[in-house]
User: What shape does this take?
Amino acid sequence: MHIEPRLLDFVALGIFVVVAIFLVYVVIFIHDIPYEIAKKRNHPHREAIHAAGWVSLFLMHTIWPFLWIWAYLYNPKEGWGVEKVAVEPSEEFREQLKKLEALEKRVEELQTELEKRESSKGELA
Assistant: This one.
């Protein structure tokens, strides 16, 4: 059986093209992993993560690890984890607040009394 050398060239070219297409597919698949994670977690910035994944292709994958972290930062049950926690004011704080309110009330009374005295002095003069 005789195989023409030209036929082997075409077979090698076909294998090269298949492998190149497979590698491109793998690179695109890997770059979409942060987007898939964000989509699965219902991340509010999932479209931005997807766009940044494509930008990462042109930046030699430099921002890709950060996209991965960004996608994992949002937890669907807890959100970002930075919600405000309601803090009950302490008893000492409440007492200080009452004293402050009493002092403000006393200052207002003194100001009105001072204004009355000044106006009565002006009437006498």
